[in-house]
Amino acid sequence: MKARVTVYPKPSVLDPQGQAIAQSLRGHGHDGIADVRQGKVFEISFAGGKTREEAAAEVETIAHEVLANPVIEEYRVEILD
Amino acid sequence: MKVGVVVFPGSNCDHDAWYAITANCGHQAEFIWHASQSLNNLDAIWLPGGFSYGDYLRCGAIAKFSPVLKSVRQFAQEGGLVIGVCNGFQILTESGLLPGALVRNRGLKFICRDEALVTATAESPFTATLEKGSVLHMPIAHGEGCYVADERTLDELEAEDRVVFRYANNPNGSLRDIAGILNKERNVLGMMPHPERAMDPLMGSTGGLGIVRSMAAAIEAGAILS
């Protein structure tokens, strides 16, 4: 079983990297770009023996306590088969 | 005063801190390896700058799970003085000992230069020998030093007089020009600028001396239990 955790900066937190990328894209002629937020993706593989629900609960804990800093980031957990 | 300087894999200001405490200020210091949990006979803990665990995941995020941090957390809860400089500040916010977070500098550049800091409060064991409003010069050296927190936290920090230093000329976008803050109990200080690099006229500035002197005075006065 695999899980994917996507972490990205909260909308309220300035993301200067995303802004720099957005600026660069506009410079390349992509005029319609309103905003870019840069985040991180984690793929976590389980050794086996876990139900989908158990894996989801464990990854939720991992995302909240380790992979994301809730002060500045939001995250999304997906369970992949 | 005897200060424990914590050494993480990737710390690079640990020896500077040790030298500042011992040679520049005449106190005792010893290195504490990150895998150790023993903080015996120490009056204060110094979390130095650098790139603990390679700054992987986020700056300070891995260090908060290190064995030594368990002991540092307990040391702080018992009223011991803890100072975190640069990466040490990032570790303190990641571990929840201080509020807020440190994110990428607004201008995206790593900045290494002297900055002027305004002492925002003398009501702390780290600044008691300084005067409120006095300006200290010391270097900053960071890529992720922009202090952020929600409005409520920022208001609370100011209402409780917990902002210790502000940048005179904000270099990194830190909200409300914050360069250093205290915990509620005022025995934990986190700051991005490097006092250990400003300890002797040869270094270009002596702006860091007052912080170590204040800590020693507080410990000598017995105000801080360890």
Give a description of the structure.
The complex is a heterodimer of chains A (81) and B (226). Chain A is of the alpha+beta class and 81 residues long. Chain A has one domain: Phosphoribosylformylglycinamidine synthase subunit PurS (Mth169, Chain: A), CATH 3.30.1280. Helices cover 35% and strands 27% of the residues of chain A. Chain A has two helices and three strands; from the N terminus they run E-H-E-H-E. Chain A has helices spanning 16-27, 52-67, and strands at 2-9, 40-45, 73-80. Chain A has a three-stranded antiparallel beta sheet with strand order 2-1-3, covered by helices on one side. The longest helix of chain A has 16 residues, at 52-67. The radius of gyration of chain A is 16 Å and the shape is elongated. The mean pLDDT of chain A is 93. Chain B contains five helices and eleven strands. The model of chain B has no long low-confidence stretch (mean pLDDT 96). Chain B has helices spanning 14-24, 67-77, 87-94, 151-159, 209-220; strands spanning 2-7, 28-33, 44-47, 81-85, 101-103, 111-119, 135-142, 146-148, 163-167, 178-182, 188-191. Chain B has 226 residues and is α/β, with parallel strands linked by helices. Chain B starts with a strand and ends in a 6-residue tail after the last helix. Chain B is globular, with a radius of gyration of 16 Å. Chains A and B meet through helix 1 of A and loops of B.
